[in-house]
Amino acid sequence: MNWLVSRKRLWSLGKFIGLSLLCCILVVSCNNPQSRTGSSTVNTTSAGNSARLVVGTTLRPRTLDPADNYELAGSNIMTSLSDRLYTYATGTGELEPQLATALPQVSADGLTYTIPVRQGVVFHDGTAFNAEAMAFSLNRFIQNGGKPASLLSDVVDSVQASGEYELTIRLKNAFAAFPSLLAFSGMCAVSPQAYEIGTGKFKPREFVGTGPYRLVQFTPNLIRMDVFDEYWGEKPANQGIDFQILSSSANLFNSFRTGQVDIAYQTFDPEQVQSLKQQAESQGWQALEEQSNVVTHLGLNAKQQPLDNPIVRQAIAAMIDRPLITKRVYQEQAEPLYSMIPNTFDSYQPVFQSSYGDGNVDQAKALLAQAGFTRENPLTLEIAYPAYSLTREQVASTLQEYGSQRLDGVVQIQTKAEEGATFFANIPKGIYQAVLLDWYPDFGDPDNYIHPFLSCTEGSATGCEQGASQSQGLFYYSDRMNQLIEQQRQEQNPQTRQQLFVQIQELIAQDVPAIPLVQNKDYAFGQQTVQGLQVDPILKLPLWDIEKGASS
Fold it and tell me: pTM of the entire structure?
């Protein structure tokens, strides 16, 4: 995204007149909330001097169109501007109605969802909300062909209003996690008067929804939202939000320390997090640390030799030392992860801990010997990662060093940094042996950590040819895994479904298509004047619950 940066010029119109003009320019600039005086300067906002919240971040939204946004930066903004049919009770993974008035009625075959929707709701432009408007919003999400469109188009057959305040959705195949999918930020209601249905018809710099805030300004450095006076639900605890977008983590760090932002959230370097935590008590800051639902895996290409041998993949799993990685790379700002499903879900089973442990050198050597690898015939493994990710670079380097020092030359790890676009374009082509993958889930259900990695629509014993597993560079194919994934997607009984996830995790530990490494922690920092600050694994920052008091 490009924008113009204004530059001051000094005209030689005489010493006195020139100085006067310069002073005038400075006065106007200091009172203009949109003035830009360099990437390291925070725009004039309401930090510390009003009941508006100033949130500092380095995440710059590409678009606020819910049918095209598929990045965390946009989702953080849209969560405050919008309502979905369903959301989550803050601090829990419990689904609750939002624009719906109840959980769906599901047909016996699991294909038809009937959802009652709320009355008395209006959009930010005054248009009345009803089932037709909700159907318009979901159909637009599917038909406009934006980045996240496949989330719905892959599973939904039709969406229609079956009454003024009743919505009926027909699925192509049964999908038990569908209500959770409807809580995804992009599935929000948008005004039919403000948007169009049609391929590529997006409005990246606008937002007209039904949420507790309405968008009033969207510039590259500042996004402002005011409280929506006609909001149907409980009004926010503050008078509005200014998202101040900083150019770097260093600028975010300094802006918080000097009180120019009320809340600092995403993203800091580990050293900056550590510094803010250490100074929190003496400075009176709030430092929040919570479990995140973001995970990192080492994906293994099961189609490439010698990783087509599951014994080799098991040996790599045995050599991984997660506590070493979390200490050296993350400075304890992440925790070891022993399943592809994070421990924020009840279905989490630490199967890699029980099967392989951490840094199990003896087991790794024995498995490698079984596969024919010794010091004289070492296993060579190349690990690729996107060059922009310093964290993944350090993970790869740690694994390389560990393999060299602890495994007596039986494993020789090489690292490969690739430009981001090239890295992601090459993954589904099967170019890489192993890849470091960060995963930001689309919705709060264990399925979203399994299906996008391990399902395969077309494959054989030689690997996956088409499907999610191929697109993630794993090329893993298993009839049994495909069966288990489909069973859990169709199963409506929560207890039975949870048992299916146990079986899935056990099969992952046996076949090792990927190796879970770490589960991130999430950090937010608030000034003394901020009350009600909390970090949620799914909702991230519930800003509507935050109140801002006077400076002490």
Answer: 0.85
